[in-house]
Every structure is written in structure tokens, then in C-alpha cells.
Amino acid sequence: MTEKELLAVACEQFLGKNVQDIKNVVLQTLEGHLRSILGTLTVEQIYQDRDQFAKLVREVAAPDVGRMGIEILSFTIKDVYDKVDYLSSLGKTQTAVVQRDADIGVAEAERDAGIREAECKKEMLDVKFMADTKIADSKRAFELQKSAFSEEVNVKTAEAQLAYELQGAREQQKIRQEEIEIEVVQRKKQIAVEAQEILRTDKELIATVRRPAEAEAHRIQQIAEGEKVKQVLLAQAEAEKIRKIGEAEAAVIEAMGKAEAERMKLKAEAYQKYGDAAKMALVLEALPQIAAKIAAPLTKVDEIVVLSGDNSKVTSEVNRLLAELPASVHALTGVDLSKGPEVLRVQAISDCLPFLVCLHFLFSTPCPHFHCHIHLICLFYSHLPVCLFF
């Protein structure tokens, strides 16, 4: 039943009654059910199993009180007693049994306690021995472990020391590497500075020396180019001048050649017309040139020494030269001067006379020790070299 249904039934059953009346109705109902249940149980069951007894009362009485709108939530047996002390006597016997069992239990407990104590002591000793053994083993293991740890610690310490030294060496190497890099950077900067200085010096050299030199060279080159152009122009002008002169000279020579050819033609015609007299005239005309060619080597003589002791002999030598002149001319040209007209012979002698006079003057002058030093000065007179000796 739900709470609303129980409430409706309760109102129906107990409406108009007070609380005490309600309690009495419920109590009487429970007592009736309690008595009915007690009739089904023994005294020992009631005394010894109170919880079961209370449970049976709740199960039997619950439907009846429920029809009155009441629900049993809890039912407890507080005490069980009787007027003839049956339950008390039963309790004493039970108490004695319990006491006996308690004593036996105590003795057994003490016995078991002694045995257990001995076992415990033995176990304690065993445990202590095992503990001591374990302690010894632990100490031995500890010492071994300690030695191993010490060895490991020493190894680790040595490794750490070696690692420290290696790390120190690496750090030193790293520091040295960084120093080298710094030195390299400084050297690069120094090289850059030197390069800048070289560049500055080069620029200064260019500004102070090379450019002025280039300017001077350019100026000289321009002057040279101008001089070259000038010389070329002068050379061209000179060449043109020479060409003009050459052309003029060629024209003159051509004209002179033509005139000479005409003259020679006329001479040839005259020579053919006049015969031997013409030939003799031609030879006489060439005599001064022949005498000049003969006397030409004497112009290169610095000093001539003539040894002679007789002035008359020199005069006779001159006379001999005059006498032999026609024969010499005849031997050279084939023309006999002795057979020519008188006027031509006189002309030949007159042409050679200056040369002969010089010889006479030379050799007729007194000279100590029968010799003289002759200095020659060549003079040209009428196309004939006149030699003055002094």
C-alpha cells in the first residue's frame, strides 16, 4: 500500500479517537500476535534467538496493523523474563557451562598461548637468525656493493677527470680556434686596410704622378702628332718641291740635252767639214779637263818632299815636259799637235802653261838641304787647276 492509501485507511479506522486510544489498539494487536508466536516457540528459542522472534512478530502482525492504516517500521524485544525465574535458572546453568567452557578455553588459550609463545620465540629466533643472516648478507652485499660503487665511483671520477681534461682541451682548442679566427679576421681587416692604403696610394700616385705624366705624355703625343703632321706636310712640301725642282731640272736637262745634242750635231757636222783641225780643236778643249783629272790626286796630299841639288835641272825638266807634251797628247788621243795649225799649238801650250809655270817656280826656288815641303792649294782658273806651292 502507498502512503496515501495507508493514510486513508487510518483516517477511516481511527477518526474521532485520541492518540492514547490509537496506541492501545495497536499495542493490543501486537500483544495478541506476540502470544500466538510464543506458543509456537520453546523457551530456549525465545531466550536465545530474540532477533528471530522479533522478525516473526513483524511478519505476522504487519498485515493486521496494515489494515488499520499502520506500517511497522521497527519491532525489537528488549527483555525476556518470567515470574518463576525459569529463565534465570536456565541462565545460570548456561552461565556455568559458559564459565566452564570459559575456563577450559582460558586453559587451552594459555596452553596455546605458551605453545604459540614458544613457536613465536622460535620463529622470532629463526627470524632473528635469518635477519642476522640477511643483515650479514646485506652487510657483505653492502660492502661488495660499496666496493663496486667505490670502483665505479673511481672509474666515474677518473672518467669525469678525463672528460674534464678533454673538455678543457676542447675548450682550449675552441679558444685557440676562436683566437685564430680572430687573428684571421684581424689579418683580413689589416689586408683590407692595406688594400685601401694601396688603393689610396695608387689613386694618389695616379692623381699626382700618373695623370700629370699621362697629361704630359698626351701633350707630348699631341706635340709629336703635330710635329709628325708638320714633318709630313714639310716632307710632302719638300717632296713636291723636289718633284717640281726635278721636273724643272729634268726639263732643263732635257733642254740642255737637246741643246747639247744639237751642239754635238753641229760639232759633228763641223768636225766632218773641217777634218783634222776639228779633232785637234776638240782635244785642245779637253786638255784642261785632262790636266784637272791628273792633278786631282795631288789635292789629297798633305806634304811632298822633293830632293834635288840643281835648280837648272828643274828648268830643264820643265822644258822637257813642254817638249814631250805633243807626244803625250798624241799617245793619249791620237792627235798630233805638231801637225796642226800654229795657232792651235800655241793654244795648247797656253792652256798647259800655268801648270808648267808652277812647277818651274817650285823647283827653281832655293831650298836648304836640297828639299822642300810643298803645301797645295787648288785654285781653279779657266777650268784648269793652278797649284800654288809655298
UniProtKB/TrEMBL annotation:
The record, for Pfam families, names: Band_7, Flot
Tell where it localizes: Membrane; Endosome
> Band domain location, by residue?
10-192
Q: Which GO terms describe its molecular function?
A: protease binding
Share an example GO biological-process annotation for this protein.
protein localization to plasma membrane
UniProt keyword Ligase, yes or no? no
What keywords sit in the KW lines? Endosome, Membrane
Q: What is its main location?
A: membrane
Asked whether the UniProt record includes Thylakoid among its keywords, one would answer no
Q: List, alphabetically, the GO terms of the cellular component aspect.
A: endosome; flotillin complex
Family the UniProt entry places it in = Belongs to the band 7/mec-2 family. Flotillin subfamily.
Assembly description: Heterooligomeric complex of flotillin-1 and flotillin-2 and caveolin-1 and caveolin-2. Interacts with ECPAS.
Q: Specify the protein name.
A: Flotillin
Q: What is the originating organism of this protein? A: Castor canadensis
Gene label? Flot2
